[in-house]
């Protein structure tokens, strides 16, 4: 049975002048573009890893699909944000990286299946993903250096600062 309305999941795509293999290796180097504090294995199907950013965000992620040089799929097993009411928004969603060869380089398509505009975290989360994917991951692929969240005692990257500012605005609006 087909649903009457189509949900718009967050997605972004970019191309690089690197091979699909180089793009795939960068995607699976989660500490190189998302957070240096990730715990666990990030490059093996079935593996589980843990992400956290201060007291703002923590999640448990399982790698459900890993096709070398082509695709990576994560399932969010558990998630907590300190700035939303419904803590189930990310639980059970999938984060999909699709890599294809394009014009001698690679195209990386990122989709967070289940992160939809109706969710309270959509604006903050889509802005943060945009910074991590279009900025940090792309830079890791192109230059070998991303801008992941540093270990807890480090400086906060610019894209995380923007998400923090958006959360502050949402909190002020909710209080007003």
Describe this structure as you would to a colleague.
The protein is α+β, with helices and mostly antiparallel strands. The chain has a seven-stranded antiparallel beta sheet with strand order 1-7-6-5-4-3-2. The protein starts with 9 loop residues before the first strand and ends with a helix. It has one domain (10-175): START domain (Alpha-D-Glucose-1,6-Bisphosphate, Chain A, domain 4, 2-Layer Sandwich), CATH 3.30.530.20. Strand 3 and strand 4 (57-67) form a beta hairpin. The protein contains four helices and seven strands, in the order βααββββββαα. The protein has helices at residues 20-27, 30-33, 122-143, 158-175; strands at 10-16, 39-40, 48-53, 57-67, 71-81, 94-102, 105-113. The radius of gyration is 16 Å and the shape is globular.
For the biggest β-sheet, the strand order reads 1-7-6-5-4-3-2
Radius of gyration (Å): 16 Å
Record field, number of beta strands: 7
Please give the CATH architecture.
Answer: 2-Layer Sandwich
Biggest sheet architecture: 7 strands, antiparallel
> Could you say which structural class the secondary elements and strand pairing correspond to?
alpha+beta
Regions with pLDDT < 50 over 5+ consecutive residues?
A: 1-5
Mean pLDDT: 88
**CATH fold annotation:** Alpha-D-Glucose-1,6-Bisphosphate, Chain A, domain 4
The CATH H-level homologous superfamily: START domain
Number of domains: 1
Order of helices and strands: EHHEEEEEEHH
Quaternary structure state of the chains depicted: single chain
CATH class: Alpha Beta
Helix content: 25-40%
């Amino acid at each position: 049975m087909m649903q009457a309305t189509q949900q718009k999941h967050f997605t972004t795509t970019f191309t690089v002048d690197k091979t699909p293999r180089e793009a795939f290796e960068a995607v699976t180097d989660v500490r190189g573009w998302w957070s240096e504090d990730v715990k666990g294995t990030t490059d093996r199907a079935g593996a589980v890893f843990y992400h956290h950013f201060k007291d703002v965000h923590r999640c448990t992620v399982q790698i459900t699909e890993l096709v070398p040089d082509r695709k990576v799929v994560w399932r969010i097993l558990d998630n907590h944000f300190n700035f939303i009411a419904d803590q189930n928004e990310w639980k059970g969603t999938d984060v999909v990286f699709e890599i294809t060869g394009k014009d001698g380089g690679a195209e990386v398509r990122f989709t967070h299946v289940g992160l939809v505009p109706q969710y309270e975290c959509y604006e903050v989360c889509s802005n943060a993903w945009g910074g991590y994917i279009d900025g940090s991951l792309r830079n890791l692929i192109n230059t070998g250096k991303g801008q992941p969240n540093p270990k807890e005692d480090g400086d906060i990257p610019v894209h995380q600062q923007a998400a923090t500012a958006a959360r502050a605005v949402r909190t002020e609006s909710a209080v007003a």
